Amino acid sequence: MASKRKALCVDQKVALIRAIEKGKKKGDVGKRFGFSPSTVATIWKNKDKILHAETEGSSCKKIRKPKFEDLDQAMLTWFHKQRCNNVPISGPVLKTKAENFAQQLGIIDFKASEGWLGKFKQRHNITYGKISGEALNVDLNVTNSWLINVWPKLNEKYTPDNIFNADETGIFYKMTPDKTLKFKGEKCVGGKLSKECITAFVAANMSGTEKRKIMVIGKPKNPRCFKNIKRLPVTYKANKSPWMTSILFEEEIRKWDAELKGRKVLLLVDNFPAHLNLSNLMNIEMIFFPVNTTSILQPMDQSVIKSLKGHYRKKILMEIIESDGNASINMLDAVNFLSKAWEEVTAETIRHSFRHAGLRSFANAEEEIEFENEDDTLKIDENLVTTISLTDEEILNAVTKGEEEQKEDEEEAQPDEVVIPSIQQALDAAKLLEKYLLFHEDDPKLSQNMGEIHRKIQKQYWQNKKVQTKMTDYLK
User: Fold this and answer.
1) What is the pTM of this model?
2) Distances in Å between the alpha carbon of 26 and those of 6, 35, 209, 405, 455?
């Protein structure tokens, strides 16, 4: 009687492939999994398709949510912190720390078993890796070696339009300058400097012709000022601490990979702990800069982020001036200003930054960079943390925030209710702007654009009128 054919799920196939990739013999792996040599050979032959199926969610079972979510989040935060400091972490160390955190969180029925450890690693894509002996300080020999031996081979595979760099930056989004020009002898008095921060993830290509929509990471999950907004100019994500995480990074990169639809690009990123080395990307080749060289090699760190922040601060100042000092910047203002500031970062600034990092030829060195003579305003959040560096007490406090405390945070971040302009106010404003352009502007394109805006608002106005008329007739 023929033996019954064994049904295999993607998880089992992936585990077999990973074991062979680590150098295990196919015969030994097959025996361990109980597969015949022909089955092992077939799986290995189709490994690319199987690994792709894994990323599409075709595994036997979904990764379940942890039983103790606060503990899981605390452990992930602590793990990130240790890796930021290049501290080697083993399985027993993770289990010991988990039991310690569980005790402090008041969890009495928790045991850090091998099963718990395996699921924790699987949930957060944690694997073992050999520690390299590279120095922590920037090594110019390593930098130069990468530029001479590695970069030319990568560069020749892609055009400047298809070479991107991405990086995070922290922003105190409400903070205004603490210095000003003044009359001699005048006393300067200002308000309290706000330390409410967000993280912006920015990416642009080498030619400066394409900038990705900014991803903004904030603390409040549902800012009140976002209520009824149909479309934000940025991609907004929330996190208990407004920093980049491996989960958010993977979501963004895989979304981008899907959007490319067959266009192949090179993405240069640093060795920031949240930047996972993602497998099975179809259109993005992701390359990491050598450890501790990004201050020299990363274009976004050269001038692009400085330019972005410079434009952003200017917009805050303009808002304050135009409101006679009564402006109150909320999260909606911040993402709008940040999006507009990103639009104003020029292609020349981006190209200059790639050149300055040694990734682009200096053939067009006449291009000028913006904000060379910057003031201290641009440096107020220069070293703002965008990753995790907390004490154990701070980690536990962050994950055990109650709903009321979270609600208070959101309300503090958004002190004012947002007044949604009515259709009548929008129509009046459009008419006024159109009339203003007749007297003060000689740009036909600008007038044409304003006319289109006016007509669109006018159409919506009359559509609303018809609905209201029908309702009035019905009520009669």
Assistant:
1) 0.58
2) 18, 10, 48, 54, 69
